[in-house]
Amino acid sequence: MQSAAISFSPAISLSNDSRHNGFNPMHLALHSERRRLRSLSASLFSSGPSAHISCSLSRSGWVSSQNLVTRSDVVPVRATAESGEAAERTKSKSEDILVLGILFGFWYLFNIYFNIYNKQVLKVYPYPVTVSLFQFAVGTVIVILMWTLNIYKRPKISGAQLAAILPLAVAHTLGNVFTNMSLGKVAVSFTHTIKAMEPFFSVILSAMFLGEIPTVWVIFSLIPVVGGVGLASMTEVSFNWAGFWSAMASNLTNQSRNVLSKKFMVKKEESLDNISLFSVITIMSFFLMVLPTIFMEGIKFTPSYIQAAGLDVREICIRSILAALCFHAYQQVSYMILQRVSPVTHSVGNCVKRVVVIVSSVLFFHTAVSPLNSIGTGIALAGVFLYSRVKGIKPKAKTA
Q1: pLDDT tens digit string along 293-351?
Q2: What average pLDDT does the segment 137-164 reach?
Q3: Is 4 left (phi over 0), alpha (psi -120 to 50) or beta?
Q4: Which of 104, 125, 139, 347 is 20 to 30 A from residue 305's alpha carbon, by CA?
Q5: Span 104-133, pLDDT tens digits
Q6: Are 346 and 337 within 8 A, CB to CB?
Q7: Distance (Å, rounded) from C-alpha 377 to C-alpha 194?
Q8: Which backbone phi and psi does 66 adopt, to 5 degrees?
Q9: pTM (two decimals)
Q10: Cβ of 315: how many Cβ atoms within 10 Å?
């Protein structure tokens, strides 16, 4: 609601000479000006902020001034709008946190079941290369269905992008093959304890190929990682060198993939998002694995061969499919999380995930764990957590 106050100064007084009958220009001008002021007053009452208008009569005619005064009754409207926006932002942030929490939950859950089903298969079917090929095959089918059904848009891939992604796919393929080799030889908990050495390889490779010199804090954080893994290895009941070196090779290849992604990826404006990149890598890994699998292990995943080995075909197939689905699902969710959080947060989540996998596998498989082995594993994981917190610390710039 708008209000207006109109005042006239000085008071209008006309001389006796101007009050005679007949045409008077002053009367006409005064009448016209009053009509204009009434119109202005009506418009001010109808909308907008309140105003005070003062008018005076000078020698050259009427002079008016308008001073806008904001009324206090519009403040609640503005406050209500601002509080509504704040509430909307708070609601949106709460929803984002809820979605992120659900994604982390699925990430851990899929990883736990992948390790359980995968270990059950590899214990009775000792062909890790064939198992890896099958997992990439299931992932490829999922990606194709996802693109065909428009669940996720199929990216347009150029030749330059394929050439840049190929080294990543090779490293990704080798990393998963070596992980399966290790899982087939030693306990799940020990494999993941060794894989806690990933930060060590990341620092070494980044310094060699990217010229990234680690800070003193990062170097100190690696000491408990290396020491804890060494202590756990010396006291591990299922220890054997094949499982140990396979897990170490997995660390090397996985971190090489991360370094190559920084060194060889195409221009930012042409690069793929994380989910599309993982989808393309999965398909490339499948084709990269076909010939090596045939040459290394032959065609061993047939019902007749499984029956001849005295295994239950139905049980092996179901667990292999479940392991493959969980394998693709947990990695896909991992990339989805990476799109929502910073690399440091993702690294911390990965550290927590490793703890969850180790504990769950020990409970499920009733793995014998000595006190020293538990202490070594705990020290290594604490070092990984410390590394994830300090690696983002930048050295202070030297002042001249």
Answers
A1: 999 988 887 788 888 878 888 899 999 999 999 999 998 888 888 778 776 677 778 88
A2: 89
A3: beta
A4: 139
A5: 999 999 999 999 999 999 999 999 999 999
A6: yes
A7: 9
A8: -125, 120
A9: 0.71
A10: 13
Maximum pairwise Cα distance, the chain: 131
Lowest mean pLDDT among 73-87, 122-136, 345-359: 73-87
